[in-house]
Write a structure and sequence with these properties.
Strand content: 15-25%
CATH architecture of the largest domain: 2-Layer Sandwich
Radius of gyration: 27 Å
CATH class of the largest domain: Alpha Beta
Number of strands: 19
Distance between the termini: 80 Å
Largest sheet: 15 strands, mixed
Structural class: alpha/beta
Length: 503
């Protein structure tokens, strides 16, 4: 018996190879995943800290430290430098081709005398010239056009065009409105008018596969601004967008504002009609807008179109009115955060009243502080925003900014009659800012925007009257309403606030 036990003790137990394989992976997969996560954390942390502002860095660190692998993927798409080298070179070449000494000299003739601008605002316009590279121009006439009248006025002006029509828009939709504008452009081409359309590759993605080919066949030149392919060779970030809305006709008449080329519901029926404003400009500012259009056009096409003479594309302007205005083109590159700088400086110059209208309100800390301090100093601050927007994260992240403004004595008005898409601000009775830029970090830093800084009592009061008309469809936001939110909603809103630097 002892011999039998001895023999059994010497027999090795049989091991199933399948079980051994599964046991190996059961041990090493979690270990490998853990090592990968820490490798990502340790690699990304110094990159994020070094290349981003404090607010952005904190948001990216929170995301990548908590969820390293999803954070790495998101950072690869949205966290890198804004522009690639090829795009920077394209923008610089476009500026060199468009901003010739002769064209700049033609604009310089319309520069206002220093005594035409209130002394308290001279520094603001000097700053605009420094950060924008554009010029303050007098002799302009501005007519504010609302959503209902914009397309009709634009088509009427296209039908009167004699030499060229240039459109730049973020959204061009293949809907009834988009087709009406396309038909007007086709009629213009038949008369021998050169028509060019530049639309953002992301905002107008569907347009390029449906309506754009038809327009090209009719003779309209259509180009894709910032193509929205996932891997864009000329861009570092895939979410950099051309958010400008601009139209220039014969180089003598321009439109600039918040409205895109589409039906007023923007294809999103649950919000009702979107409410926009657009400035119809004549005078020297039209030539400035023509130059800005061609900077974007040349960045995509590589060269200016052929023309009989320089005067054909850039006719020298004549005075049309008395408004003083400064174009504010902003975006990645040489004009990074120029729009934010102008907004911030304008807010600090308010002594009596600020009226601000924007669909998306996520200011950076500096701009928010400027508004809070003006309100605490006794300046009347009226912020008009939609009660609901098409962005859940923006709705949530804005709550903390609203609460801080209410505590400082500002008034927040929630607009309930459709989606208020206007982007405008008036300062006292003398200064206004108006155009395509939202008062959020995306418009401050990521998007290409076009806005107007204007000076003059008549133009400022006229715009403010338009903005105050929205108050009839508003209800005030009370501090008790924010305080009465369920705790789970407060938690969600505060979480959205943490990532607001990335929105």
């Amino acid at each position: 018996m002892d011999a039998v036990f001895l023999m059994l003790s010497q027999v090795e137990p049989s091991v199933d190879p399948q079980e051994q394989h599964e046991s190996f992976w059961a041990v090493w997969l979690p270990v490998g995943y853990l090592l990968l996560e820490w490798a990502i954390r340790l690699t990304l942390a110094p990159i994020i800290i070094r290349k981003h502002s404090a607010g952005e860095a904190a948001a990216w660190l929170a995301l990548t430290l908590f969820q390293p692998i999803p954070g790495l993927l998101l950072y690869g798409c949205f966290g890198r430098q804004l522009l690639g080298r090829r795009r920077v070179r394209a923008n610089m070449r476009a500026a060199e081709l468009v901003e010739t000494p002769e064209r700049l000299a033609a604009l310089e003739k319309h520069a206002p005398e220093e005594n035409e601008i209130d002394a308290v605002h001279l520094d603001l316009f000097r700053l605009a010239g420094t950060v924008e590279g554009t010029r303050t121009l007098s002799g302009n006439l501005c007519d504010i056009v609302d959503s209902d009248g914009f397309i009709d006025r634009l088509i009427d002006d296209i039908d009167r065009a004699e030499r060229h029509v240039h459109l730049l828009t973020y959204i061009y939709r293949d809907d009834a409105t988009g087709q009406r504008v396309a038909e007007a452009l086709g009629r213009a081409v038949e008369r021998g008018v050169a028509c060019r359309v530049l639309a953002d590759g992301s905002g107008s993605a569907g347009f390029f596969s449906t309506l754009a080919p038809k327009m090209r066949r009719s003779g309209v030149e259509v180009r894709d601004a910032l193509p929205s392919r996932f891997f864009r060779r000329t861009l570092a970030r895939i979410d950099v967008r051309n958010h400008r809305k601009l139209a220039v006709i014969d180089g003598a008449l321009a439109y600039a504002g918040s409205q895109n080329i589409c039906d007023t519901d923007y294809g999103q029926h649950r919000y009702g009609s979107w409410i926009d404003l657009t400035a119809r400009l004549t005078g020297p500012m039209a030539m400035q807008m023509q130059m800005l259009f061609f900077e974007d056009w040349v960045a995509e096409a590589g060269q200016l179109p052929e023309s009989p003479s320089d005067q054909d594309l850039f006719p020298h302007p004549a005075d049309a009115g008395s408004m003083i205005a400064h174009a504010i083109p902003s975006g990645p590159g040489r004009r990074l955060e120029a729009f934010r700088d102008i907004i911030l400086s304008a807010i600090t110059e308010a002594n009596e009243r600020i009226v601000m209208v924007t669909p998306y309100f996520i200011p950076d800390q500096t701009t928010q502080l400027a508004l809070v301090l003006r309100a605490r100093a006794g300046v009347r601050v009226d912020l008009i925003v939609p009660e609901k927007t098409n962005s859940f994260l923006v709705n949530a992240a804005a709550k903390s900014a609203f609460a801080e403004l209410l505590d400082a004595g500002a008034t927040v008005h929630l607009h309930t009659g459709g989606l208020l898409h206007v982007k405008a601000m008036t300062i006292d009775d003398s200064i206004s800012v108006f155009g395509s830029g939202n008062f959020d970090r995306r418009s401050f830093r990521l998007n290409y925007e076009i806005n107007l800084l204007t000076h003059g009592t008549d133009s400022t009061i006229a715009l403010r009257d338009r903005l105050e008309a929205y108050l009839g469809d508003c209800r005030p936001l009370g501090k008790s309403e924010l305080d009465g939110r369920p705790w789970i909603q407060k938690l969600a809103d505060d979480a959205a606030k943490l990532i607001s630097p990335l929105l």
